[in-house]
Amino acid sequence: MPIRAMITPVTPLQQNCTLVFCVKTMKAAVIDPGGETPRLLKALADHDLTLEKIWITHGHLDHAGGTAALHEATGAPIEGPHPEDAFWIDQMDESAAKWGMPDARSFTPDRWLDDGDVVTLGETEFEVRHCPGHTPGHVIFFHREARFAQVGDVLFQGSVGRSDFPRGDHAALVASITGKLWPLGDDVAFVPGHGPMSTFGAERRSNPFVADAVLGR
Predict the structure, then answer these.
(1) Best exposed site among 54, 94, 129, 152 by fewest CB in 10 Å?
(2) The domain that contains 141 carries what CATH number?
(3) Do 155 and 190 contact (CB within 8 A), yes or no?
(4) Is the pLDDT confidence value at 38 over 90?
């Protein structure tokens, strides 16, 4: 496989922060550094990895709260999310106080992402899909050759993301899952924002919210 990945749950909400790296170059990206920056830096050092990118699926505190600290510690550029999530990032300091996570801070991405963009890591690349619904600017990262995706809070094993936050939209979320994720292939293994990994095929068969049988497909 051209890439490898390690999942590190962070913050009291146990958000799946993923450290993914190019096997040839040992250059890494941290996807959704919600917090616990010293722990993430130690993981990079322990595996002799060079942090090349910081990728953000969406602007919620538990996924992006440690972004500013990780950027300051490493200089790695921040890519993502889609600009429609700027309002979540802008209110991060306020959210941090509300949720008792004082280390979380707002930031400005070096690159906003949109549907169809490509992000590079070492000698490999990931495709970006804009998947609104949980938040309006949510994106996912897909590695075609490895059949691997990081989907944030769009889809979970046996569930889907909440849509009751500001500018959430359940119909849009279902459309993102069925229109953007399912076409990537049933064999794709995905890391959700929380909880265990699954595959798109398994969720199409049994997920009570978006299974083919539930949606009449």
Answers:
(1) 94
(2) 3.60.15.10
(3) yes
(4) yes
